[in-house]
Amino acid sequence: MLDFEISKFTRQCCATGRELLPGELFYSVLVPEGSAVVRRDYSADAWPGPPEKTLGWWKSHVPEANAKKLHLAPSEVMLQYFEQLLEEPLLADERYVLALLMIRKRVVRQEQIETDAAGQETVVMHCALNDREYRTAVVIPTPERAQAIQEKLGNLLYSK
After folding, report:
1. CA torsion angle 36 153 127 138 (round to 10)
2. Within this chain, do residues 45 and 2 fall inside the same structural domain, yes or no?
């Protein structure tokens, strides 16, 4: 897995140089530049679509000045929900997305990715909090399912 730093939101459109205002829709994109990964933010009216060789992109709204910051649930809560999902074979895509979130938030550390004879990849992770190893299949959700998972995890794991 690649590990790189992503710069913070600049509040400025990289195409026009205009300041992005609170509540305004904007797009962000991650693109490789040499050995680095660069984030670029675009106002909605200047968004050309994802450039060639884009690693990832998303849309969001500029936070309001008085908006309360969202707080992520404690690591133990994420682990408990992940363990519940291990019992739900039909939610393998949700379990995989949660695993990625836990890796990103350093709740677990990715040890390796194993591939079985059928070509199915499995992420092997270690959790220092409980000294346990976890495994989950790599199951990429469809775009529609990804949206539903994002909403569900957002409602379950984030609070103001």
Report:
1. -70
2. yes
